[in-house]
Amino acid sequence: MEKPGVNDPTRVKHYEIISRLGEGGMGVVYRARDTRLGRTVALKMLSGEFRLDAERSRRFEREAKIVSSVSHPGIATLFDFDVDGESAFLTMELVEGPTLREVLESGALPVEQVLDCGSQVASAIAAAHEHGVIHRDLKPENVMVGGTGFYKVLDFGVARIEDVVNEEEESGLSKTQTPTKWLTRGGVLMGTVAYMSPEQVSGNVADARSDIFALGSLLYELATGCSAFARGSDVATLHAIAYEPPNIPTDSEVRVPRGLALVFEKCLAKDPGKRYSSAAELADDLNLLRRQMHGGSGGVERLSVFPASKRRGLSKRWWLGIAAIVVVGLLGLWIPKFVDRGPEVEAAAQTSSVMPVAMEVAPIPRVIVAFFENQTGDDSAGWISSGLPQMLTTDLSRSSQLEVIATQRLHDLLANAGKDATTPLDRSTTAELARWARADIVISGSVFKLGDQYRIDAQAYDVETGTLSAAHKVSGTDLFLMVENLTTGLLSGLTQGETTRPERMPTRSQDAFLAFTEGKTQYENLQFEAAADSFRASIEHDGEFALPQVHLATTLLTMGDVDGGLVAIETALQDSESLPEDERLLAQGIDAYFREGDFVKGAALFADLIERFPRNPESHVWWGRAASELQGDSMEGIRQLRAALKIDRDYLPAVVGLAGEMSRLGAVEESQTMLQAAADRCPMAADAIMELME
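RE: above sequence
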């Protein structure tokens, strides 16, 4: 960010220029303040001689009209278009953050981030295509990463509205732009060459499938760290786009999941007719891969790129071009470039047949319960809007058909964005937070009160499409019973016929429940002393509430108070029938390992727990601790802790446990890096993590 230069304006109409953000082929972009509305915007205006060029001004105005015709969270919002003297300008949403080009300076991105970025950008481009708008200049420089990890597509300066722009409009573009025809009438090479499609290189008209090719090139670069087609010269690059397979990554450590490799093959097909038929179809495949990664299983056969009638695998030429980076399955065996893969895999590679993958399992939806707005007008009922997400999360998490993410993730994201969690959030912001939390469905709602009667309205929305997945409302005076009924109603809409009533919450004390949920949040943020105090307070409010006894035990054991932890476990198990089944199995497994010293019994209990409740990371944490600390099996400990992080990469007790195991094995630097990354993602626990690092 630069201060305005001597030739830069200080004010454009009612916009006060704050700083220069950058300069493109035709214009300069400034950070500006709208003095009328008091908001900060990005102001883009034609620069230098272009201000007096009628053709450039007309194109500039066309960009504004194009952007204003599309409304999508992945496309920067246009606020205004106007003229100040002889200078046309437009103002739009200011997106804080780096471009993908800047992100790529650090190398290839993790596969999960590539899928997240690709699904968001594909969704944005699909929205543009629905309005007849072809971007024609997709590249890393034109996608920005927002402060909380949301992606925004920028620069529709050379976009085309289908059936509106004629060939005369294709001339006179700047060198940084991509025209429909890469040669002007004067024969001068135009455009950002490396991201052109074969049809553009051949001088044919670009349509929506050209954007899909460019997006494929962009995602390939994100996944591998190298451009798909860039060569030593523009001419060589154009030839590669038209006739050659993508570059092989120079980094032999780069690996691409097989499902994503199939997506690349379809996006980068030379024949437009063999690519995805729409950006929406591409977004669907990327979202499916993302869900499969979260769900822990799933085969590529579910992808639209892999129809049942064409299960012949990758083409020979593509396979040879990408063999160094393809793996057996998205979550299966990873094959390094120079490792003996065995005769079966070698044969598969040589014949280009479809490699075996894990048995296909339908991906389990990831659900997050967001904030409920207190509409009661009663400040004393404010605890309901904060306690309700915890109660719903607890009840929904016992469904075998849902993976429920802790609401804490939304608090972490808000903290990262510098926002207060108590501030009401609109549906769009909540959906974006849920998307960044890697959720598929977000649940939110409101609480009302009339006399002694409460009413809770809840809605579950698909994060990607915004469509309503389920809705339910309940009313009454017993809040705990209302939440049980609300859970049952939501489950019937979110699952395939699951109508099992959630286990009754074993307390009717609001104070006991609030202290318990506060303790769980503190435990997950590594604030163990505070968590122990909260669990003790919960027990004081309701001495028959066994759940806080279990969690007091895990907290004290984590703090090194083994005697206190075992007393709490023993107390909890005296009333084991009142415990939810997952909590009972966890307590029994810990008791078997740490008090009885019966490793066989403990392992059997943890295995049963994981089989019945496969989405519970805490079970893996404690099995891993028992294996490592009591049996001396560090490798099993690491395996269990990694399994916990596969369920929830931000489950901090697992992060800290794995970092500790790695440190004890001598991987101190890797351990510190892991902890630092967790501190960056989870600011509410950053202080506790930094203390561990010191």
